[in-house]
Automatic annotation (TrEMBL):
The keyword Transferase does not apply. GO terms for molecular function: DNA binding; DNA-binding transcription factor activity. InterPro entries: HTH_MarR-typ (IPR000835), MarR/SlyA-like (IPR039422), WH-like_DNA-bd_sf (IPR036388), WH_DNA-bd_sf (IPR036390). Keywords: DNA-binding, Transcription, Transcription regulation. It comes from Thioclava atlantica. This is MarR family transcriptional regulator. The keyword DNA-binding applies.
Length: 151
């Protein structure tokens, strides 16, 4: 049954979380793509668009368009890198910093709702399992590297 496969279940869970976030965060004017970009800027500090493309796993042109829209909406600012003026770093704006905690609360409430009825042990196990899947499929995975060597 296709709707019970790992791929379908992961996709459906992510889609439902994304929909809930966008429904709740629409008053803030944030999409999930914009939220993810802001989270990376919060965690890692100002970043060049090329690095954001890697982190978000989308094409550089898509990040450029996303940053353009976010700059127009006063969510981010592009500023020259003090070490290399050819590079523009994306910085969160004052607006982004002002609403970040409110958006974080929305995300946390959605995660709490998604995990309702699960014990702490079950949640930890699910998170551990997902991390393991991600490691198995990441480019740095020993399994992935050995497959690449056999091609």
């Amino acid at each position: 049954m296709p709707d019970q496969s790992l791929g379908f279940l992961l996709h459906d869970a992510a889609r439902l979380i994304r929909r809930r976030f966008e429904a709740r965060a629409c008053d803030l004017g944030l999409t999930t793509a914009q939220w993810r970009l802001l989270v990376y800027l919060k965690r890692k500090g100002p970043l060049p668009q090329a690095r954001l493309a890697e982190l978000l796993e989308i094409e550089p042109i898509s990040v450029s368009r996303l940053v353009d829209r976010m700059e127009e909406g006063a969510w981010v600012e592009r500023m020259p890198d003090s070490n290399d003026r050819r590079i523009k770093l994306v910085h969160p704006s004052e607006r982004a910093r002002a609403v970040f905690e409110e958006a974080r609360e929305i995300a946390d409430e959605i995660y709490d709702q998604a995990l309702a009825g699960l014990s702490k042990t079950e949640v930890e196990h699910a998170m551990s399992t997902l991390r393991h899947i991600i490691r198995n499929l990441s480019d740095e995975s020993p399994t992935h590297s050995s497959e690449a060597n056999h091609e």
